[in-house]
Design goal:
single chain; Dna Topoisomerase Vi A Subunit, Chain: A, domain 2; 8 helices; 10% strand; globular; disordered N terminus
């Protein structure tokens, strides 16, 4: 279906949906058609919820999480350990760790990773704010929960260098065989990381 076959409003809807992660033009057309067919039950409530989210949800000035409050609920939760800071690339990574319910400290969202190819330098990320938080006196350990990519590893090394001499313990997530994983299906990099990170039993 070309733009000449649909009214402008539908074209705009399809174009905006196609900009969402995981949706190409064909999936966006299907999603738009589904929304239009379910106007009262889905489209109008979705539009209202999106407008409300745009008005109320904002980044936390302390950690970078998204919430309706600033500072966010995680930063103001007194049950969390203030001495441990988990550094993540994006809010999606923070949410993933929260879903797993395995970390009870606080977070710091960098907003991406260093990338020479994409022109992303230290000043483009929340690294200075991280260093300031680390030197504030409360933090004793920083966990670098960055993705096991070249850019993620480069960022981890840079952050570690910036924190050198602070007296704060810096650790990284272990990489290797996932729970329930079978060796035959793992890639060479994962197997190599698993062997290097082996531990006694």
């Amino acid at each position: 279906m070309t733009s000449g076959m649909t009214p402008g409003a539908i074209d705009r809807l399809i174009g905006l949906l196609a900009r969402l992660p995981g949706l190409g033009p064909r999936s966006a057309r299907r999603a738009a058609l589904h929304l239009l067919k379910k106007r009262d039950g889905l489209m109008l409530p979705l539009a209202e919820t999106l407008a409300e989210a745009a008005r109320q949800i904002k980044p936390c000035a302390t950690c970078g999480n998204l919430d309706v409050a600033d500072p966010c609920g995680i930063c103001t939760d007194e049950r969390r350990d203030r001495s441990v800071l988990c550094v993540v690339e994006d809010v999606a990574d923070l949410w993933a760790l929260e879903r797993a319910a395995v970390f009870r400290g606080r977070y710091h969202v960098l907003g991406g990773t260093l990338s020479a190819l994409d022109g992303v330098g230290p000043d483009d990320l929340n690294i200075a704010a991280l260093v300031a938080r680390a030197r504030g006196g409360e933090v004793r350990e920083i966990i670098l929960a960055l993705n096991a990519t070249v850019d993620g590893q480069t960022t981890a090394h840079y952050v570690t260098d910036r924190l050198a001499g602070s007296g704060i313990a810096v650790s990284r997530l272990a990489h290797g065989v996932p729970v329930g994983g079978e060796l035959d299906y793992l890639d060479d990099g994962t197997l190599a990381a698993a062997l290097k990170a082996r531990r006694s039993v």
